[in-house]
Design a protein that fits this description.
By secondary structure, this protein is mostly beta strands. About 10% of the residues lie in helices and about 15% in strands. It has a 4-stranded antiparallel β-sheet with strand order 1-4-2-3. It starts with about 30 loop residues before the first strand and ends in an 8-residue tail after the last helix.
Length: about 100
């Protein structure tokens, strides 16, 4: 997936401590149904925090959650770590002008 030109450049600040590439780059905006790597994501329309663990994106697994809407639902990946603390997630959002609705 390519990075959206309007998406923030979050970079390594919110990456996992392991430093490994897990698929969707941190800072990328992607459609919700295209999430293919674990991490913490912010829903762009609501500011809600979604935590996507590794077992939720393994091949052959049923989606853990489905969103149905008339409008396209996109998310921005803020961390490779799905269990980032809410205070750190809120700080990443503030540092990159991403509206959040969880703290």
């Amino acid at each position: 997936m390519s990075k959206n030109a309007n998406s923030p450049n979050i970079g390594a600040a919110a990456s996992s401590s392991s430093g490994r590439n897990t698929g969707t780059p941190v800072g990328s905006q992607v459609p919700y149904d295209s999430i293919n790597s674990p991490g913490a994501y912010i829903q762009n329309t609501t500011g809600n925090l979604f935590r996507i663990p590794a077992d939720a994106v393994q091949p052959g697994r049923s989606p853990a959650m489905s969103i149905t809407s008339r409008e396209p639902q996109t998310v921005t990946k803020i961390s490779d770590d799905p269990f980032i603390t809410v205070t750190k997630a809120a700080q990443v959002c503030a540092d990159h002008d991403i509206a959040q609705n969880f703290l």
